[in-house]
Specification:
The complex is a heterodimer of chains A (342) and B (129). Chain A contains 13 helices and 8 strands. By secondary structure, chain A is α/β, with parallel strands linked by helices. Chain A folds into 2 domains: 51 residues; 221 residues, P-loop containing nucleotide triphosphate hydrolases (Rossmann fold, 3-Layer(aba) Sandwich). Chain B is of the alpha/beta class. The chains are: A alpha/beta (342), B alpha/beta (129). At the A-B interface, α2, β3 and β4 of A face α1, β2 and α2 of B. Chain B: Keywords: Cobalamin, Cobalt, Isomerase, Metal-binding. Chain B: Pfam families: B12-binding (PF02310). Chain B: GO terms for molecular function: cobalamin binding; isomerase activity; metal ion binding.
């Protein structure tokens, strides 16, 4: 009996996988949800999809909230669609509210020009858990989309925290969007965004402070280039690419063609220098580490965060009987033993 | 981790009154759901395709133009054409009571007319499935 059920399950699963590979939106969407919800079914699906793993070309686009990422993407997608038969998927990540667990996913509003095109698939994704899990979900979503025949995948994130920077590190080409009112020199120095971009975009260049911001960005730029030369190994994946700064305005539809050209240049640069192939391995490595990290964290924290146990820890600390370090050390010694053969 | 509820909130058709839709979207977000908000002036085709791509558990459309009968009919026609899974649809906005039956016959599971409370809407969505 159970064998029969197994067989039936196997059969419908094969049909499901075939539908994903065939590019059917409903099945693609479903497999992304299963992945996000960490359903056991998702493991089976991913196992099959990884079997012939097509690495897509991944573009990351990041920048502060309200800098115009989605609007720019809307215009870029319009240009890219001029390429016949190119299928493009977008993963638009927005933050989950830590307080309610809910999320307001509104990136699609800005992509009205293209969302009817049959060659575009847009998926909004909330960052969900606190433990960096979004990175692995994003990567595996890209794997699903690639299996479904999307050759180019754009990941859009708000560039504020470490998580978002990490998401971008899964990309082959990284676009960093900034705006004239993004702050002064000090803000630029602070921002890690400046270190991750292949192409920098000063959007809203119709605003009065644009020229001043351009000067600031350019002067900061040269320092980064020198830094890259000094630490060549760490920037291995970036190779000898010279970052560029482009000015755009969505309002005036200005600079978009140059931007699309710059992305194409970067793609050609990656391909001609065999970097796309190297990236595949580097990104997979990051994905593996992300997965490991989020799985371990989740298990450990689940174990740690049990009401009575945690309450005892807290009482011990508050009464002065134990220090946080002592408790953590004990907890780790008890729960996390890894045999290391030397 | 249990499955998160995903809801699409969209304005269907040409009216520009989105206060209600935005408030409902915010309330659902604050109740812990993932809300995909597509803003003003969506066609029935766009709403259905978005719902499929986003794999939502519920479609909520807001209509204040008076064209709800035509628009909702189109929505269900598109859903049948594109999709073999029926996604529950709720309608909000200014809908005369006389039209409730017509909309329900099309397949609308619930109508929240003017005067509906946020609590009422939340209760309904939370109890889905």
């Amino acid at each position: 009996m159970s064998e029969q059920i197994n067989e039936l399950f196997q059969q419908s699963q094969n049909e499901f996988i075939a539908a994903v590979r065939d590019g059917r939106e409903q099945e693609i969407a479903r497999s992304i949800s299963l992945l996000e919800d960490k359903s056991p079914l998702s493991r089976e699906i991913m196992k099959q999809l990884y079997q012939n793993f097509n690495k897509p070309y991944i573009i990351g686009i990041t920048g502060p909230a309200g800098s115009g990422k989605s609007s720019l993407l809307n215009l870029m997608l319009k240009e890219w669609l001029k390429e016949p038969e190119l299928k493009i998927a977008v993963i638009a990540v927005d933050p989950t509210s830590q307080r309610s667990g809910g999320a307001f996913l509104g990136d699609r509003i800005r992509m009205k020009d293209i969302n009817n095109d049959q060659r575009i698939f847009i998926r909004s994704m909330a960052s969900r858990g606190k433990m960096g899990g979004v990175n692995s979900a994003v990567y595996d979503t890209a794997v699903i989309m690639a299996a479904a025949g999307y050759e180019m995948i754009v990941i859009e994130t708000v560039g504020v925290g470490q998580t978002e920077i990490d998401v971008v590190s899964l990309a082959d080409t990284t676009l960093v969007v900034t705006v004239p009112e993004a702050g002064d020199e000090i803000q630029i120095f602070k921002s890690e965004l400046m270190e991750v971009g292949d192409i920098f975009i000063l959007n809203k260049d119709d605003l009065p402070r644009a020229a001043k911001m351009e000067v600031l960005l350019k002067s900061n730029f040269s320092l980064i280039e020198t830094e890259k030369l000094n630490r060549k190994n760490e920037y291995e994946s970036k190779g000898s690419w010279q970052s560029v700064l482009l000015k755009t305005s969505v309002l005036n539809n200005h600079g978009i063609k140059d931007l699309v050209k710059a992305v194409e240049n970067h793609y050609n640069y990656l391909r001609n220098n065999n970097i796309l192939e190297q990236n595949k391995k580097l990104q997979l490595k990051k994905h593996l580490l992300n997965l490991l990290q989020s799985e371990i964290l989740e298990k450990i924290i689940l174990e740690f965060d049990q009401e009575d146990k945690l309450d005892k820890y807290l009482r011990d600390i508050l009464s002065g009987e134990a220090s946080p370090y002592q408790l953590i050390e004990e907890f780790i010694d008890k729960n996390l033993t890894i045999q290391v053969d030397l | 981790m249990s499955a998160k509820k995903r809801v699409l909130i969209a304005k269907l058709g040409l009216d520009g009154h989105d206060r209600g839709a935005k408030i409902v979207a915010r309330a659902l977000k604050e109740a812990g759901m993932e809300v995909i908000y597509t803003g003003l002036r969506n066609t029935a085709e766009e709403v259905v395709r978005t719902a499929v791509q986003e794999d939502v558990d519920l479609i909520g459309v807001s209509i204040l133009s008076g064209a709800h009968k035509t628009l909702v009919k189109k929505l269900f026609e598109n859903m049948e054409a594109e999709n073999n899974r029926t996604i529950p649809v709720v309608v909000g906005g200014i809908i005369p009571k006389d039209d409730y039956n017509y909309l329900k016959k099309l397949g609308v599971t619930k109508i929240f007319g003017s005067g509906s409370s946020i609590k009422e809407i939340l209760n309904y969505v939370e109890e889905l499935r």
